[in-house]
Description:
The chain has helices at residues 2-10, 38-49, 80-84, 100-108, 122-135, 139-153, 184-191, 209-215, 224-229, 233-237, 246-250, 258-261, 268-280, and strands at residues 15-16, 33-35, 53-56, 90-94, 113-116, 118-119, 164-170, 176-179, 195-196, 204-206, 219-223, 253-256. The chain is of the alpha/beta class. Strands 7, 8, 9, 10, 11 and 12 form a six-stranded mixed sheet that branches. The chain has a four-stranded parallel sheet with strand order 3-2-4-5, with helices on both faces. Helix 2 (38-49) packs across helix 5 (122-135), helix 5 (122-135) packs antiparallel against helix 6 (139-153) and helix 6 (139-153) packs parallel to helix 13. The two termini are 38 Å apart.
Amino acid sequence: MRTFLAILVAVGMAACSAPAGPAAKPVSTPQRIVTLHSVLTEVVASLGLEGHIVGTDVTSKYPDAVNALPKLGHDKAIRAEGILSLSPDLVMANVGQLDPAVESQLRQAGVRLMLFTQENNIEGTKQLIAQVADSLGRSADAATIAARIDSDRAAVVPLNPSPKVLFIYARGAGMLLVAGEGTPIQSMITLAGGTNAVTGFSDFKPLTPEALVAANPDVVLVFNTGADDMQGNDALMRVPGMASTGAGRNGAFISLDPVIMAGFGPRIGQAIALLNTDLVRYVKK
Length: 285
């Protein structure tokens, strides 16, 4: 579950602000890059340097080719020895992601370490792409990617009324969590024209029948991994309280790929448009 939630916060799902610390000097065409965050992996690949990535963290699943690369663990579980074994000339991660001792070991070994902080918004994504591009000598490509994000977002249809969307993180019927305020998935729902069906709490909390009925979502959103674990929409209908909701009565269930939906990376415009397309089907006429 930690890995999945990490994808939501990363990816995932995440956009970055200025690199932190003295290691953030621009570099030109590093030959061996280690990316320890799913969004950073995707950004580097989108800048045409996919072939220079030699290792990633476990949340990095796109593009497909990175799945064949060495996986170095997740956040504080990542060890310097694994990174150094790949002989990188650049390591990218998020501020606070790595154990401080690991950061120190990498710098002592002479490896350039670039750290970023994250925000879950479109401008933050564009800023991240521009900063990474500048660092890799690919500044011209950043503008092209930003324009693509805007073009994809232009396909989003305004929704009136805005459907209430409940995101459920499912790992079997006995483990259901819902996304509250301040989560990347709430930002995604809002950008796609929906409204988070639950309020009054942050992060994730267990779903109860009473809370489900009270939220009365128009649409239920799950990631396709979670839907598969619950054996599809029939399993969602068996969730206590679901039949009493608008989503349950109308069979308004959306299942999407977490790799694109959970990260504020270069494909954020495409992700928003995908969710919006599905939500359009359930807007009350």
